[in-house]
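Let's practice the habit of predicting before peeking. Look at the sequence and jot down your guess about where helices and strands might fall. Then scroll down.
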Amino acid sequence: MLHRLSGQLLASLKSAVIAGSAMVLMAATTPASAESLLDIPPVPESGPDQSWAAIAEMVMVYYDVPNTGPGDMQCSIAYYLTGTPNCYKAQDESEFTAVSRAIKGYPQFAHESFGELPIAMRWEEAKTIPPAEIIQEIRFERPILVQIEPARNEGEAKAQKRAVLIVGFDGTADNLQLIINDPKVYPGTQNPYLEFGGHVRDNSGQYQIGYADFQSFLKWSATLYKIKPD
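Done guessing? Here is the structure:
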């Protein structure tokens, strides 16, 4: 009788150890769903149609690119692109193209203007990138420039291709939530992030929205990523 009880006790202990080991293994292999956010505070647009310049400024400040002046950073970037002091990009250039050109060329120009060693930027281009790649980019502390084309708002003649910045994420590749800096001031009832399941994180222009909703409803169509100083 004693021998049988000892055997049952050993069997119970063995089962408990196996179950405990399985739980530890599951915890080790299950991806964490903690939020990850770059130190890029949202910057609101300084005026209508100036959100592209605010996006460019965020990237330059993040990478410690100096302001060449004589005005504020946004006007300096616009001057670099157009050669005119009116602080606006060329009318026929999309926001995404203007910000892309600034990222690719302004850092080197700015450092050389101050007699410093030129710093070229590296990047890659794509249409869209999958959730796992977004997670990797943010974990490597690199913002992601993307182009969207949400439905036009009242007063707009046509839908606009716009530039916004992915600066973080929440969740895992299976249920990814994107954290977006978008400086555009939207009319209260015509905000595409709120319309398609997102929410406001910062009233200066930061939103959180599901990856699939962002891709489908805000019509994500171009990407500049792996952005880093050479």
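How did you do? The chain has one domain: 36-229.
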